[in-house]
Amino acid sequence: MKSTVIIGAQWGDEGKGKIVDYLCKEYDVVVRYQGGNNAGHTVHAGGQVFKLQLMPSGVIRKKRSLIASGVVVDPKVLKKELDTLEKMGLSIGPSLLGVDFRAHVIMPWHLYWDAARESGSHKIGTTGRGIGPVYESKAARWGIRMEDLVNPVQLEAALDKSYPVHAKTLKEIFNVQQLPSKEKTFQEYAELGRQLEPYLCDASQEVDGALDAGKNVLFEGAQGVMLDNNFGTYPYVTSSQPVAGNASASTGVSPKKIKRVETVVKAYTTRVGAGPFPTEIQGNAGETLRDKGKEFGTVTGRPRRVGWLDLTIIRLGNRLNGYDGMHVTKLDILSDLDELPVCTAYQSGGKTYDYFPTRHSVLEKAKPVYETLSGFKDADWNAVCREGKSKGFDALPLQAKKYVAFMEKHAGVPVLSVSVGPNREDIIVRRESEP
Ligand code: IMP
Question: How many angstroms is it from 238 CA to the middle of ligand 1?
């Protein structure tokens, strides 16, 4: 029985979808446990490019895929994603996809609420998908859950409770006039509920049962450690917890049943939206790396901010999550550079910090400490990929191997695989995931 959590080590967009797609061939069930359609997981497979937002990446290999109770679901987006995948030849019926009846539903007012807040002075650069507001509704105990969406009587009662107060607040505080009427909202969402009803399940019970039956379960995180609502660069974070501990809490299985945690680390760093990013590369060098790495948001198309690799983040993540291994992605994107600065520590107020400092008073004065490694400019990446399949890790240029070894040494975590291109075949396995 394998039970593994895959999480993003940085600020999201590390390539988790691709790694989950690769690893899940050995798993029976894939569970998404937090976030919503703020995530964008891109998977290149069989000559097609799948851009998933809500769907666990396991669907592409036709693995049983579950959306757990901790995920927030925009039913319009879910329906559209099902239709798009159907058009791409991937038909996803209820035997493939299950959505926990407890998952909270993103309603129109959550989108207006997100947009209205972001138009003010406290803008943090959200994806505008209503994620913060829906988690607020959930915590405030007036949210609408999937089980309400699929039951017209419950949906009507839930709307009676939450619609008037949201409409009034949006109108009076944010001057939002265009919220659809309660009746129109009911009709539209009851219809979505009717279409999605067959997918409803109890993901907690199903995952628990699968693990007891000796099946392999992969828990797929969205976003990344530095966007964690508790441990990231608050308030420039998302509203859920990507950390591995939350895979248990948000799916509804005992933490004792989850055996392994693996993380996906981009070979450099990116972040979207506002917030601290001490290793950010300013000017032309940053733009060149952004263009080469195609660093534009999958969900919003926004240009991502680009920076050098920061190993203090991986060390922080290792403390929070207990990494058993790392999957390094996009190593090929660094192949045009002469030198590769890597942040190994911070200095702030006369002290040296080994871990990324998330306390504001420390972070605002913190200066990254870099070690500069030689680049691997002369590598023929096509040859590396071709040979990588047969020769494995040894096919990498010497300086690239040194870069990876440096990561391992400073993070204190073994590298399990290295990706040198967008396709499944471009993943070079270094060590098997399971001992
Ligand atoms: P929200 O999750 O839409 O509320 O956005 C909060 C912050 O998290 C913003 O800085 C977003 O850019 C960022 N964010 C949310 N989801 C992702 C993701 O999947 N990848 C990268 N950044 C994300």
Answer: 6
CATH topology of domain 265-435: Adenylosuccinate Synthetase; Chain A, domain 3 (3.90.170)
Place of tokens 């660069």: 233
- pLDDT confidence of residue 177: 86
Query: Is the shortest distance between the CB of 13 and ligand 1 below 6 Å?
Result: yes
> CATH 3.90.170.10 residue ranges in the chain?
265-435
Nearest CA to ligand 1 atom 1: 126
**pLDDT confidence of residue 168:** 93
Q: Distance between CA 36 and CA 137 in Å, rounded?
A: 15
Could you give the residue numbers annotated as active site?
13, 41
- Give, using CA atoms, the residue closest to atom 10 of ligand 1: 273
- Residue 36 beta carbon below 6 angstroms from any ligand 1 atom: no
pLDDT at 61: 94
Pick out the chain residues at pLDDT < 50: 435
Cβ(103) – ligand 1 distance below 6 Å: no
Residue 48: beta bridge partners?
Answer: 45
Ligand 1, atom 11: nearest CA belongs to which residue? 126
DSSP 82-149: HHHHHHTT----TTTEEEETTPEEP-HHHHHHHHHHHTSTT-----SSSHHHHHHHHHTT---BHHHH
Q: Among the CATH numbers 1.10.300.10, 3.40.50.300, 2.40.50.100, 2.50.20.10, which is that of 104-198?
A: 1.10.300.10
Q: What is the pLDDT of residue 299?
A: 78
